[in-house]
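Blinded run. Sample ID left blank on purpose so nobody reads anything into the name before looking at the predicted structure. Input follows.
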Amino acid sequence: MGDLIYRLLLYLNSSKENDINYNIALTMLRNIRIIPNMSINKLSELCYTSPAAITRFCHKLGYSTFIEFKENIKINIDSYNEGLMKPKSINYEISRESMLNNMSLEIINEIETFKSFVDLKIVDRVIELIYSSSNVCIFGTQFSQLMAQDLQRKLVNLSKIIYNANDVQEQERLASELDENSLAILISPSARFTIYHERLWRQIESSPAKVVVITEKENPHYEKRSDYIIYLPHRNDSNEYTQNHRYDLSYLIEYIYTRYGSMYKN
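Blinded prediction complete.
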């Protein structure tokens, strides 16, 4: 269920099995659909810990209170139930061959649409900023986070260091250190980052850094604060077999890396 699941899985994958955070994350994942109706005392009993420990864990996930945490779970569950976070094709009764073929056509369409849509002049300006900025931080969650890490790893091969963090609190630390010589890149295809990570966005927004946003949807916060916006083609959640922007975003990251190398060979 979106970003919340991603954050809980980060704790599951990075904590030791006997760590209290591991146990809380595991219990939350097992009971994710009923947590919105739970009291903090009931959840702490399930986790064999105290309400204070649950509150501290919510803070680690980036939520101010347990109530805010529960509200975010409900938003995620509602989005999933409405089909916004799962492929429509899950409900289709078609052959595996047809499924694979339809999926391939959808991926090709996403890439071809991106090729005819993207503004390469804007992408060049962004690459120039990446090259000239002494401190480049890239922000995003879920698949956007994977793309941020991919760009970070690729640019190291060209002797350019950019900074990224898995944990939301660590991303907030990076944002707090942005100065006038910094560049903040935000990957937010759905444009919901300002809602789900309001505190982190406020830090980026109020910093003196230059800001670049990669997104599909128009967002007045992005338009007001960004120096450049790289727009992805409008998909309007139209994909039936694959996650929207999984392939054109990956294509863009690959292009930025290759173009950076061609512009700054020496």
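Unblinding after everyone has recorded impressions. The mean pLDDT is 86.
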